[in-house]
Amino acid sequence: MIGVAVIGYGYWGPNLARCFAETDDCRLVAIADSSPAGLARAGKRYPHARLLADWREALADPEIDAIAIATPVRTHYEIARAALQAGRHVLVEKPMTENSDQARQLIEMAEQRGLTLLVDHTFVYSSAVQKMKELIAADDLGQIYYYDSTRINLGLFQRDVNVIWDLAVHDLAILQHVLDSPPTAISANGISHVRGAPENMAQITLYLESGAVAHLNVNWLAPVKVRRVLVAGTRKMIVWDDLEPSEKIKVYDRGVSLTADPEEIYQMLVSYRIGDMWAPRLSTAEPVLTETTHFIACIKDGLTPITDGRLGLQVVEMLEAATRSMSMRGHPVELNPQRRAS
Amino acid sequence: MIGVAVIGYGYWGPNLARCFAETDDCRLVAIADSSPAGLARAGKRYPHARLLADWREALADPEIDAIAIATPVRTHYEIARAALQAGRHVLVEKPMTENSDQARQLIEMAEQRGLTLLVDHTFVYSSAVQKMKELIAADDLGQIYYYDSTRINLGLFQRDVNVIWDLAVHDLAILQHVLDSPPTAISANGISHVRGAPENMAQITLYLESGAVAHLNVNWLAPVKVRRVLVAGTRKMIVWDDLEPSEKIKVYDRGVSLTADPEEIYQMLVSYRIGDMWAPRLSTAEPVLTETTHFIACIKDGLTPITDGRLGLQVVEMLEAATRSMSMRGHPVELNPQRRAS
Amino acid sequence: MIGVAVIGYGYWGPNLARCFAETDDCRLVAIADSSPAGLARAGKRYPHARLLADWREALADPEIDAIAIATPVRTHYEIARAALQAGRHVLVEKPMTENSDQARQLIEMAEQRGLTLLVDHTFVYSSAVQKMKELIAADDLGQIYYYDSTRINLGLFQRDVNVIWDLAVHDLAILQHVLDSPPTAISANGISHVRGAPENMAQITLYLESGAVAHLNVNWLAPVKVRRVLVAGTRKMIVWDDLEPSEKIKVYDRGVSLTADPEEIYQMLVSYRIGDMWAPRLSTAEPVLTETTHFIACIKDGLTPITDGRLGLQVVEMLEAATRSMSMRGHPVELNPQRRAS
Amino acid sequence: MIGVAVIGYGYWGPNLARCFAETDDCRLVAIADSSPAGLARAGKRYPHARLLADWREALADPEIDAIAIATPVRTHYEIARAALQAGRHVLVEKPMTENSDQARQLIEMAEQRGLTLLVDHTFVYSSAVQKMKELIAADDLGQIYYYDSTRINLGLFQRDVNVIWDLAVHDLAILQHVLDSPPTAISANGISHVRGAPENMAQITLYLESGAVAHLNVNWLAPVKVRRVLVAGTRKMIVWDDLEPSEKIKVYDRGVSLTADPEEIYQMLVSYRIGDMWAPRLSTAEPVLTETTHFIACIKDGLTPITDGRLGLQVVEMLEAATRSMSMRGHPVELNPQRRAS
């Protein structure tokens, strides 16, 4: 039985608490929040959990084996470092840290101590992303051409992070998970419509090692909500519409076949293929519960999490590069795969 | 009665021929096409039109006052120049020319001779774009934040132009028409999935003089067709879905109000507004017919066309800049408003 | 402070309990359920509520002023009668009773004792239905032509009631509320696809006193979920799509104008009107909470509930007539407005 | 080479003329129309066709082997009879005749003379209906539960026929073609919203010999256009949305399995199955061209048309029964399969 403390009971913490409470081989021992109101809500819902006004108390509690961090990004590093130093396994909300140096330190600390470090990129645990990963791994799509995401809505304007750190972060984790091909360069453009505030809309292009590209369109100031990802390969193409109630993933047997005409050097022959469409049934398992269950299994069996510190670091590096490129109006920022891999 | 010759009877020429045949004060005198098969089709449809294997014959015909050019882009300049030299009014398919120097020459020739020069940016004459222009001109949207377009499908791979020249060209004309604010810089990213072929997918950001941005996403290799444009302002936001059968334009009374909290300097207060949605009735007039009617009126009354050579040139300049930026993986290309205006 | 007991903690009871717990001037005193498991769940969620294995205990409790009944339909009458006899106000799940005689008795008992009797036709309290009522009351739609509802999905097969009592019951309450015109005849057709089980799909036509008709299509065995109602009038037409996330109500300025040609007696001139569409903003208030709040207000101020016993009785009478007609394969069943009004 | 004359060049005649002109082994010899304007339009489009002001002239022309009738319903019988008497093959627009007696006479005449008689139920030749027929014939759907159609829009009010004869006629032909199970009874309800005019909205239930039912909802006075048919079987369910641009047919692996619990006689166990969805690629062949090609093949090879006179008669019998039931507000009308089969 793994004892867990949830740190932060604001927007996301309640989901983690609920799922840890339902996860097998796991006990929700404590909840920490600096706000008395948050703590009161937690107590009403979990009468048996210890309520901590200061997260540091959790680290002294011998019944607590693991810490789940759902606090603002700027506090992730401090709390995660203290937890690892205290010998606790850590689940940390995405993005992992404010910068990549912090992420590298946390990875090293966890490795040296043999502790589990999982970054909460929840979408990776959704049945839609799992199905995409499965189809791509089975080579059903063929060689991947691109990943193209539109993630827009009238959303909460964040004060401390821009829209890339808030929305594109999802796609960056998903595309590393499903395509497993790091970017060699990133170009991003964006704008803030409020003087002095972080950018609220952006377009990002990632050039991947495999030759594929990823296009991301994120926006907090759109009149309609769109959550749509296209993944196209030589054989098949996927449309993932996360707002569809039942058929979130559609697989299209469509594409082009390109052949050079041997007779005519300048002539390119393109033939189009339009076949069936297929929407596989998706599991209705809740992603957060899948994730907390995976976290506990990793702790017990010493497994590496699917969304481990390395994935978390990769995402932070891409966020840094995209933000840097955005400040130069699209000037591409090269990423060094060597350094990342070390 | 204005006599018109249509040059090129391939994909687009038949639409122009049909609309000129239906336009008042206008007579379809001749159709030229280098292919005997194209000419035969034209003759079957228009038994009274002269059929010309060589477009040059049209310039010697005293009954022909105007030339409509629907040939490949690389031939636009030569034909338009010859027509203007021969004192004929010109309607030329978009994009106007292969490069901006050619466009400038044509503008100058038309001005010196007092001839009408209209670039066939058909979308500008659609009832959806006219309604957007009308709403923006009446300040219903307030100050414009952005223009964001997705224009993707499984489309014909062009051999001589990339996807920007083929698809983004529409948005560039539309946004200049409705926003009337030239870009100061353009960043574009794109890729070709066929070695040696032009780019088939691209993302473009335009930084406009007004402070607004435009984001364009164009793609010939998408499993689904999307034609969706968002235009957001301080007061209202528009979604234009051109594939909707009846409600193409939806106006949302949505947005955010941002105010700095006087007490707390770092605190930004955002309030969200979610009001009614409204879909104005659109005229069912056919855009091409609206355009040919406008062309004849401009000739008769000496008016400047809505899509005149200057708009055509602006679009070509933006296409050049976007293509240049794309070859540098998003490195921004500055545009000099001075030079453009000269 | 009105003390409330919720009887039945299965599918719907938890919603009522939650809303009564959040309603002002009201206290959730007790929850009764015959199943120990249901009672345990209730206790976990509401540690301060009394847990009753037998609902009769609630009637002896002086702190309980009102009873909310969320048990199977066949038990409604017995529990409601006992509650009214014990001087308690009653909120009863829809349909009100198994037959109209029982409904008439409950109405009479409540009236004699001056007690509030509300039938839980929740949809009537939704912002979509309230908006429709408001538009129709303001004569925005003109004279009503028809109400046409499609309410289908792959649904829970009920054992004790047919699909009309389960799904059409919603439309019957809504249309009486918004159109306020009782039917003079009902014709219904339906079928059971399981030998011996109640009908799982049906089509119902109601001929209303006003001259309008209502068409209802209900089905438990459909591959897709549809919740769509059309209400058409001489001036405007409404489409209510309850599955739309944001624009549930759309008002179309569409219709026909019909005039007899004075010259030609057999000639009917029809002109079509296609104008704007408008989607009014809807309140996001939760219907059940609106209803529980209304129930408490009715008790305190002696008001007649919007969904009172008379509406509940009307609905049961229509359900009876529809079921009778269905057993005769559409043979129309006349309803006597006189008797209903008595 | 079969010579064809098209009689009637109003709304539908031009489609038939165009398709006969494109059909192999067939020549469009003549077009007849009583209106000079219609004839002039025909002549402009088909300069080589003979233009006849009186359709009777076509019957004397030895180059004309077949007559295609696209005139108002009330004239179908007279023209078809004269054509068959003159030894001509006949294609007649749907509905076949004004009443079933006329239809029986035409069938008999064609049989006695060995002439081809095809009723133009175009939808039967569409790739969507062909795919449904194919899936059902292959027993992919299992035993059929029902056919449920919604066919509504703001449509042309007809003066001589009601909405059943105009819109439900499509479904009646389709369902006989794909289910091949005649109705034993029909119940219909409908209303006219214009005094003295034919009914403009109706709901029809057909009880089929196989035990399945068909529900049809037709309406000329709806604010939105819907063309959606559900066909559900024990194994799979189809949704056919004819307004979808690309995936018109969707096959859902969904349903219920019903088993009686042996222990508990009153207990019905229902298990739900939710599997994949699949949208087969459909041919883009034009239905009318498929039909005219089939008509010519039937003439040349002596085959029985898919939509022969018997199908046309069945549809007229169902239209008569539905109209009769509608006049009795849903009172079911029995159909005698014996008589129909004789």
Topology at a glance:
4 copies of one chain form a homotetramer.
Chain A: E1 2-7, H1 13-22, E2 26-32, H2 36-45, E3 50-52, H3 56-59, E4 66-69, H4 76-85, E5 89-93, H5 100-113, E6 117-120, H6 127-137, E7 144-154, H7 163-179, E8 183-191, E9 201-208, E10 213-219, E11 221-233, E12 237-241, E13 249-260, E14 268-279, H8 287-301, H9 309-327, E15 333-334, H10 337-341
Parallel strand pairs in A: 1-2, 1-4, 2-3, 4-5, 5-6, 7-10
Antiparallel strand pairs in A: 7-11, 8-9, 8-15, 9-10, 11-12, 12-13, 13-14
Q: Can you describe this structure?
A:
- 4 copies of one chain form a homotetramer.
- Chain A has 10 helices and 15 strands.
- By secondary structure, chain A is an alpha/beta fold.
- Chain A has 2 domains: 114 residues, Rossmann fold (3-Layer(aba) Sandwich), CATH 3.40.50; 184 residues, Dihydrodipicolinate Reductase, domain 2.
- A 9-stranded mixed beta sheet of chain A has the order 14-13-12-11-7-10-9-8-15. In chain A, strands 3-2-1-4-5-6 form a 6-stranded parallel beta sheet, with helices on both faces.
- In chain A, α6 packs parallel to α7.
- About 1% of the residues of chain A have low confidence.
- Chains in contact: A-B, A-C, A-D, B-C, B-D, C-D.
- Chains A and B meet through β7, β8, β9, β10 and β11 of A and β7, β8, β9, β10 and β11 of B.
- β14 of chain B pairs antiparallel with β14 of chain C, so a sheet runs across the interface.
